[in-house]
Amino acid sequence: MRVGENRPRQHGDQKKWILSGLMIALAGLFFSRFPLFSNNIARNFQSSQIHLPELVPLKNGLKPNEKLKKAIQVQKGVLVGPETIEFDKDGYFYTGLLNGQVVKVDSKNTSNIEFIAQMGTFSFEDCKSVNETPTKSCGRPLGLRLDKTGQNLFIADAYYGIFKIELSTKKKINILKSDDKRFGNKPMKLVNDLDLNDDLIYFIDSSFLRSVDLAIEEHIEANARGRLFSYDQKSNELKLLLDGLYFPNGLQLSPNKDFLLINENTMSRIIKFYLVGDKKGKVELFANIPGFGDTIRLTQKKTLLVPLASVRPSVLDYLAEWPTVRNVILKFVNIKFFFKIFPKYGLLAEYDLDGKVIRSWHDPSGIYIECTTAGAIYDGKLYLGSFYNNFLGVVDYY
User: Fold this and answer.
1) DSSP 3-state assignment of 330?
2) What CA–CA distance (Å, rounded) separates 191 from 136?
């Protein structure tokens, strides 16, 4: 599948200077035993050559502003890595944390936090101190959805698959395991998001090779290892709907349930997958976006909130055509620190269902809100999730 893939607007001389600088930096890291040196030398990386869409200019609905500088950092140090935000009808929201906890928070009094479940195989006590990198033992809840009754919470756990929690009893059920034998020799390694249509669950696996704690490596390698599935809870039928996706990490069913929108993170775009009609099974471009998106969500106004985990240009813009260089970087550089050299920029945008930008919220400094992985609107406020921030952001919607 290749949808709207164009080469980014980069000048050859600029690329050469950047490439030379990176090689010099790598040499310096090696010979000086710089603390950012990585221990991945023995590992095998297989980056691919990709062609990113052209850079999306920050104008019109994406015109820079400073709205996110007014964001309040809610429950700092408590809500660490609130990846997704799912509101119920009473103003409480559910979110999954980096330590594998699923919690329920009162939006009117955010100190009122109720523990719902601990994912993984370890206990709450074993996992409560995890605050930097996800671990398989504690699980990592990513996408969350309430069913239409509001009595069951469905969870995409990055390591273990699809879960249902009966909220009245807090009973946790692993309804589809990531290593289900029907996946064959490609088990799910990074279950990322899901959406519901009655008993039918649509969900995405970002990679059949790398787990969530290696998500940045998967992004930089830029291989099409992502897949879209459906699972029928009544019939137990599992279907592969689409493969060859570049790190899909956001999924949204349309209001009429006739198509799915998929955020394809590595390719900096959102695609549309048709479920019914003459175009059933076909893929179209919905929108190229100004960065690497995440958990897209429909609003009550039938618009789409698009969070940007990071904006472009990035390492992939400069090195998309040099997979070997990316392999070297992955072997020798601590990627988490490598990303710190790029300018920070907080951004979330709202689109209509024709793929046009309506409005956006920015923090050009990246100081107040650096990374957004989810957005939700409730009672005139915009709630901002993040994969790794140690707080949840809240700002006025208008």
Assistant:
1) helix
2) 12
Contacts of 146 (CB under 8 A, 6+ apart): 86, 88, 94, 152, 153, 154
pLDDT tens string for the chain (398 positions)? Answer: 444 444 344 445 556 666 666 665 655 554 444 456 677 888 999 999 999 999 999 999 999 999 999 999 999 999 999 999 999 999 999 999 999 999 999 999 999 999 999 999 999 999 999 988 999 999 999 999 999 999 999 999 999 999 999 999 999 999 999 999 999 999 999 999 999 999 999 999 999 999 999 999 999 999 999 999 999 999 999 999 999 999 999 999 999 999 999 999 999 999 999 999 999 999 999 999 999 999 999 999 999 999 999 999 998 999 999 999 999 989 988 877 666 667 789 999 999 999 999 999 999 999 999 999 999 999 999 999 999 999 999 999 99
Provide the token pair at 200. 């039918």
Residue appearing with tokens 């992985």 = 373
Grouping H, G, I as helix, E, B as strand and the rest as coil, residue 320 is coil
Contacts of 245 (CB under 8 A, 6+ apart): 1, 204, 224, 225, 226, 227, 228, 262, 264
φ and ψ of 179, to 5 deg: -105, 20
CA distance 274 to 276: 6
Reduced to 3 DSSP states, what percent helix, strand and coil does the chain have, rounded to the nearest 5? 20, 35, 45
